[in-house]
Design goal:
Elements: H1 2-19, H2 25-45, H3 55-68, E1 72-73, E2 94-97, E3 100-102, E4 117-126, E5 129-138, H4 144-162, H5 171-183, E6 187-188, E7 194-196, E8 203-207, E9 224-227, E10 230-232, E11 238-240, E12 247-249, E13 255-257, E14 260-265, E15 268-271
Antiparallel strand pairs: 1-4, 2-4, 3-12, 4-5, 6-10, 7-8, 9-14, 10-13, 11-12, 14-15
Helix pairs in contact: 2-3, 4-5
Length: 275
């Protein structure tokens, strides 16, 4: 029995490692260029986030900006045929408002109002390479509990990034994030994760934001992936809208998310989605 479990463990580790793409210095340079455009897009859109603007208007502004800077959106016509989404994604970005956890589809009839919180998730492609990041934005004055949720999520991302260094276990990212978040009585979303990225939009394996300590795989120089914790004011359970993309909190509570694309370096890590 012990031998069987050991063999299964070795097989699982080998399967995970076989999925991982270690990026070359040249590939990393191009991924960083895409990451820079993603960050520029998020910097630019902030001044347009205000009451009476639709999420579709924001999406159109970002699409025009990306195209004018010699990039394209990775989201438009993206197809992910599993439980997280069926069919082609129709817009340039994901804009997730209030109780939406992720993958919110921008709409002309979704109008921002004072007090709203929203996550804008942008992935750009530059010469075939991908850079993925998201940020939280607020509309005018928001309630205190919403601001605390946003701040806690941003700090959770920073705590997760601090775990990135050669030889550390990926499980320690999720362990550190969940320990911090749950100690403050928020919940960590389980159904959606970070992922490897760079050559493809979503590469395997996944980066979990709640995980056991010291669980595989181990980090190696040249790995590129996202860390993107989603945390809820209420319980962690999610549900999908009829569009099969928009994920919401099951209990209707507020949700927040922050994201960066991260490179494992010889001395630790580097954030690739900054200007």
């Amino acid at each position: 029995m012990h031998i069987l479990l050991y063999c299964k463990s070795i097989f699982a580790k080998n399967h995970i490692m076989s999925k991982i793409i270690i990026k070359t210095p040249e590939q990393i340079e191009w991924i960083q260029k895409a990451g820079r455009l993603t960050a520029m897009t998020l910097d630019m859109i902030g001044s347009y986030v205000r009451a009476w603007v639709s999420t579709l208007e924001l999406d159109n502004i970002m699409n025009t900006f990306i195209l004018s800077n010699w990039g394209v959106s990775a989201c438009i016509d993206y197809k992910w045929g599993n439980k997280w989404g069926k069919g082609w994604y129709p817009k340039c970005t994901c804009i997730s408002l209030n109780d939406t956890i992720c993958h919110g589809i921008p709409r002309a009839d979704e109008i921002l109002k004072d007090g709203d919180i929203l996550n804008i998730d942008v992935t750009t492609i530059v010469d075939g390479y991908f850079g993925d990041a998201s940020r939280m934005f607020t509309v005018w004055v928001i309630i205190e509990k919403a601001q605390k949720l946003i701040d806690t999520c941003k700090k959770a991302l920073e705590i997760g990034i601090a775990e990135v260094r050669p030889g550390n276990f990926f499980g320690n990212i999720g362990y550190a994030i969940s320990q911090y978040v749950e100690a403050r009585e928020y919940s960590v979303v389980r159904d959606y994760t970070g992922h490897w990225v760079g050559i493809e939009f979503h590469e395997e394996p996944y980066v979990y934001h709640k995980a056991a300590k010291n669980t595989w795989p181990k980090m190696q120089v040249g790995m590129v992936f996202t860390i993107e914790p989603m945390i809820n004011l209420g319980k962690y359970a999610s549900k999908l809208d009829k569009d099969n993309w928009t994920a919401r909190t099951k209990d209707g509570s507020l949700s927040a998310q922050w994201e960066h694309t991260i490179l494992v370096t010889e001395t630790g890590h580097k954030i690739l989605t900054v200007v």
